Amino acid sequence: MRLILATNLGLTKNILTEVEGIEIVEECSDLEVLKIILEYSDVDVVILDRYLDETENGYKIKTLIKNTRRVKKDVRFIILLGEYEENFVSAMVNLGVFDLVVGEEITTEINELLNNPRIEFDFSKYSNLSTSKGKKIKEKVVYKLPKDYQKIIGIYSPYATGKTVIATNLAKYYVKNRIPVTLIDTDFIKKDLLYYYPLGNKDFFKLVNLYEAIKDNKDINDIKPYTIEIDRLKLFTDHRDSKYQISFEMVNTIVRNSDSNVIIIDISSCLNKELANEILYLCDERVIVADKMISTLNGLPYKLTLKRCNRKNLSLVINKNIEIKSLSNKEILKCFKNIELSEREKYSLDFKDIFFIPNRFKLIVEGLANREEAYGKDPEFDESIEKLAASLYQIGANFKKTGMKEILSKIFRWKGEY
Predict the structure, then answer these.
(1) Containing structural domain, residue 184
(2) Do 338 and 386 belong to one domain?
(3) Which of 227, 238, 294, 416 has the largest CB neighbor count within 10 A?
(4) What does the DSSP 8-state code read for residue 194?
(5) How many structural domains comprise the chain?
């Protein structure tokens, strides 16, 4: 059993060294370090000290567990608590974490949990410590779309290559095909998504409120108050004069609470490289947007600085495409091979496919003037968007014909009290 030990308690290590079959892969006492270790290590169990998270409600630990389980579903967490915290414990149970060790006598319990994981948590054992007297704690069950039916798509480039054009027109295509879409604008400076939709005063300053709520460490389980809803589209942008900054916590909060079949994240070039990589890590599909400018093709591979975990499920989009005979697909893809970032680091990017979006500058500008997308107005442009969209999310992979999604939502979506 391969294990990560994330705690300040030396006693825990002493206990584990006496257990047969245990290999301590890494040790750390910092959640940011733990996040990196989990990204690159193959482990079975993480023993995690609750008090590595200084937030009152354990927000950082909850986020870490959710993100880890997106890509490593079999990793098991054992959480150590010095004392019983009702809200934190309830949140862990809702995440499917039942291995919670409360109190100082941990030797016997850790040994037991390593060999026999819990399938439920006994709240009654701590009922006399509950801070909510007389209130029954119930497990919260929230219906979540199966992985096969939900896709998170990241649209990214460190250059101004028309990412928002791609994002908005993909959204338009999916919505037209009756697929619910969440579209997230991460450009907190220009807020370009704002100009593609006929928004009114009631739609503004919602992201500001979300930013403030997260800054105040509020536990957010409903994003409807922060959402702009247009038919089947749930939009997250704000007024150009609103003041906030995009954080990973904001994007992750929207993603984990979204019940849309498709989530599109327009990842702005104004974000620092670390944040851009964190957001890309959430995504199932990663779309890199370029154009045929030689300066773009030569510089893009070096400015992307994608972490190893974000070099999978990549598609390349050549936006504003024009025919250049001397620049074949092979020559374009060659730009992304043997990229030497330093003497020690060299890598290549392998794209699943390459897509070409024709240059329709006039059409895009006219659409912006009318607060609408270009899709649906030009057959060649439409066809290029449809090919890209079909590669990212298959229309047949949703419930639209059976109505099953709506039925299941009504049956299973409820929130327990805690």
Answers:
(1) 147-406
(2) yes
(3) 238
(4) G
(5) 2
